[in-house]
Amino acid sequence: MVSRADTSILIAGAGPVGLALALELARRGLKPRIVSENDGPVAGEESRALGINARTLRLLAPSGVTADIQAQALQIEGLRLSSLGNPLLTVRTNRYRGEYPALSILPQGVTERLLLARLKALGIAPEWRTAVISVNGGTRAPEVTVHRDDDSGETVKPSILIGADGAHSLVRRSCGLSFPGNALENEFFLADYAYDAPVDASHARVDFTNPGVLACIPIRTNLLRYISTHADFEERIAHPAAPAAQTWRSQFKISFRHVPEMAKGRVYLAGDAAHIHSPIGARGMNLGIEDACWLAWLIAEGREEEYSRLRLPAVRRVLRQTRMLTAIVTMDRPSSLTLRNRLLPLLSHLPFAEDALLKGIAGMDTPHPPWLAAA
């Protein structure tokens, strides 16, 4: 490994991707600076990204975060697909025979706090309420102006600048990196409901409403998330018990975009700053954390110029998969709906099909990280 002791690294963004990147760098002896315009980690009541796949657990194991996640995460047995209440297919995630569960459920705010705790133990803390407001000087020698909420600021010249600052990344835009793609017309709606007593949290459920969908994802044994393409979805929910409270509500549209290159000069992009796609399949946060771990390893090895070449194939693969899954969920032509409802039950008779699904859910369909021993 080359010595990177004099390398100054600035990370813009302190979500799961930025935090994972800082942690992976720090445990390799590097001391990145990480800034965020936010006040702190995601609020606990905003569960946001939930799924943590086996690939992410394997990547975060050396830092100790995986053990922390497993101590708090919910393990589900599988995913049940139905059409107007009639069963179509059950994907049994508990059949996955990897080192870690195919998919664990944990609110994003908890994941961020676990990453923060491990990062703090290594002597690094994000600078909250500190925004990157401009990047000048070109990508070969970026000059970054940061501004704090006390009206103070400074201009720094990092050896490496990393944009982990989300879909509207200022780093990406300031450096002239394009973000081609398209948005779907469909709007999605979600709400999290808490219950006074434990409810059935053994399976995630997706019910096709022909057209449209109403899905339920367990978060805790007394907290469920409902997602739908119907604006009136709350009237369609068959609650397992009288809900005690609605803890969060949101609506969003889906876009599929990724940068043509994930790096330019001394500027690198990770997570939503580099690629966005449908949340169907629970790959978004996981793919971003995968970016972070690869980039940290490459920087420590002095090979960061290989980052874009190594990561883009995985990004393109996941976007193709999530496009396909989203198309299955959002299709509305009667002939397509009929065909989907006939084909899905057949998959239960094809073991290789379930194995392929489980591999994708686990995130094990991307290249194995070469710094980790094969499982």
UniProtKB/TrEMBL annotation:
InterPro entries the UniProt entry points to: FAD-bd, FAD/NAD-bd_sf, RIFMO-like
Domain of life of the source: Bacteria
Positions of the FAD-binding domain: 6-234
Record-given protein name: 2-polyprenyl-6-methoxyphenol hydroxylase-like FAD-dependent oxidoreductase
Keyword Glycoprotein: no
Cofactor(s) this protein cannot do without: FAD
Protein keywords: FAD, Flavoprotein
Key word Signal present: no
GO MF annotation terms: FAD binding; oxidoreductase activity, acting on paired donors, with incorporation or reduction of molecular oxygen, NAD(P)H as one donor, and incorporation of one atom of oxygen
Pfam families: FAD_binding_3 (PF01494)
